[in-house]
TrEMBL record, chain A:
Annotated membrane topology: Multi-pass membrane protein
Chief place where the protein resides: membrane
Keyword line: Antiport, Cell membrane, Ion transport, Membrane, Transmembrane, Transmembrane helix, Transport
Domain of life, source organism: Bacteria
Transmembrane segments: 6-25, 37-56, 62-85
GO cellular component terms, A-Z: plasma membrane
Molecular function terms from GO: sodium:proton antiporter activity
Entry's localization field: Cell membrane
Protein name per Swiss-Prot or TrEMBL: Multisubunit sodium/proton antiporter MrpF subunit
Keyword Cell cycle applies: no
NCBIfam families the record matches: PRK12600.1
Source organism (scientific name): Abyssicoccus albus
Assigned protein family: Belongs to the CPA3 antiporters (TC 2.A.63) subunit F family.
Cited PANTHER family: NA(+)/H(+) ANTIPORTER SUBUNIT F1 (PTHR34702), NA(+)_H(+) ANTIPORTER SUBUNIT F (PTHR34702:SF1)
Amino acid sequence: MTMFIKIILLTSLIIVCISMIGIIYRLIVGPTVHDRVVGLDALGITLMAIIALISMVLDTKYFLVVILLIGILAFIGTISFAKFLEKGVIIEHERSNSEHRD
Amino acid sequence: MNDLIQNIAISFIMVLILIGALLSLVSTIGLLRLPDVYTRTHAASKASTLGVMMMMFGAFLYFWIVKGHFNAELFLAVLFIFITAPVGAHLITRSAYYYGVEPSKSTSHDDLKETNVDQS
């Protein structure tokens, strides 16, 4: 049974790594900037899965803290990139802008 | 008897993880082959989210049933992906539309353009 678990985990790890290589191809080639942002988002989500699989292969529970952290960081990076590409700024200073205009 | 139940549970977990990995591969094929930013975001957000959720729910059940260690952080991570990945895809597609990225040639109808024209 342990051998069965090892084989399935390593097979799915290889499949996820192949899908990660495809995402990196889209990240390099992608014609517009938004393609690259989509690729980065998918790369972060896939990295979470790889960490879960590796912590099962290595039989430790101490990597599981990293998964939630990477998810939060990937989400914040994605929304800040989207806001920067749409509006040109990420954090708006409305009060200081109105003072400078007066 | 208990051993049999645990074997069935382990087989179920392994099937869950393998299907999740295959869904992640399908999402990557969609990301490589589709013609457009919007369709690529469609593939990357839906299939990849479901695959990663299945893999991480499998990891959660593995650590719970096999190792006897209930990890709440993995379950929270599954819920977090389920909430935030569609929101991120929505924001990227919206910013791509207002940035002026053209949809592919086979797009026949642009509803959002007519709505914006009506409002202004």
